[in-house]
Each structure stands twice: as C-alpha cells, then as structure tokens.
Amino acid sequence: MKKLLVSLALLTLSFGAPGASAHSALVSSVPSADATVVDFPMEVVLNFNEELMIVGDENPNKVEVFDSEGVLVSGATVVKGASVAAPVGITGNGAFSVKYRVVSNDGHVVEGTYAFNVESPIAVSSPMPISAPIEPAEDGSNLLIRVVILALLGTGVFISFRKANSLFGSRPR
Ligand SMILES: [Cu+2]
Q1: Domains within the chain, CATH numbers bracketed
Q2: Neighbours of ion ligand 1 (CB under 5 A)
Q3: Cα(76)–Cα(130) distance, rounded to whole angstroms?
Q4: How confident is the model over 112-167, as pLDDT tens digits?
Q5: Distance, CA 74 to ligand 1 centroid (Å)?
Q6: 122 CA to centre of ligand 1 in angstroms
Q7: Which distant-in-sequence residues (6+ apart) come within 8 Å of 48 by Cβ?
Q8: Residue 36 class from Cβ within 10 Å (0-12 exposed, 13-18 middle, 19+ buried)?
Q9: CA 27 to centroid of ligand 1, rounded, Å
C-alpha cells in the first residue's frame, strides 16, 4: 500500500511538474541550422538551454555529422555544461547533416537533426571524410619517413648526450 502511494505521488509529481523543468532544448549551434558557411568548420557546437546529463564517466550525449553521401565526418562528442561539440573533418563543399541525441538533467532524451551547407572557395575536388587518415593511405609512407627521421634525431641526441656525458664524466672531481 505504501509502495502504491509512493508511485502515485511520483506519478502526480511527474505530471504536475511545472513548465520550468521542461527538458533541454537546442538554443543555437555553430554552424547554425540551414546556414551556408564559406570556411570549413573544425567542429560543430550545439548549445542547449540547460546542462546536459553526464553519469560518472559515461557520456550519453552524442552528436554526429554526415556528408551528403551519409559518410560520418565527425569525431567523439565532448560535453561542456549545456554545450556539446564534436570535431569534424570537412574538406569538401556540400550539404551536411547534424544528428544529435542528448540527455537532459531530468533524464529526458532530446533528439533532433538539422543541416548546414559548406561552400568554400578552396574546396578540394572530392570530399575527404575524417575516416580517411585511419585507412592505410598514401600518407602512410610519409608518416613512416617522419617517424624514422624522428627516431634518428632521437638517437643523435642520445649519442651526443652520451658523448658529452663521457667527456664531462672523465673530468677530475
Ligand atoms: Cu524533460
């Protein structure tokens, strides 16, 4: 009986909640909805009207950006108070869609989608999604060379450090 009363009370509470505790709503974004931008955005930021929920290390909030062919061009979502952001890798012009699913502090899920356009004068001919560098691209050999050079530099520094050490180390104390 007590349980029933408690659940009745909770039911009344959730239905009788005033409008002020309504769940999060998207207030603004960068780029904004339906905007046409001339610079490639480095990230997409969505601002809500209240802080979003984070449970411990769990981030239930997600923002994803897709190009016109449905290829994901965004990275991991970061939450900062009432804002969520995701880095994007866009190097081509076109229409992009933003899909978000966030959790209000009251536990309500808020989902939505909007679009923006990129019309940059310095766009490369074919759009390159952010996933491109992960694949074994032609960049790979460049990276290897860079790693080798860094390793050689590191070794050189180590050798000269040892030389210096042996020089100074043989000094009489
Ligand atoms: Cu709510």
Answers
A1: 22-118 (2.60.40.1220)
A2: 23, 104, 106, 108
A3: 12
A4: 999 999 999 987 655 555 555 555 545 555 666 566 656 666 655 555 555 555 55
A5: 27
A6: 43
A7: 24, 25, 26, 27, 82, 83, 84, 102, 110
A8: exposed
A9: 15
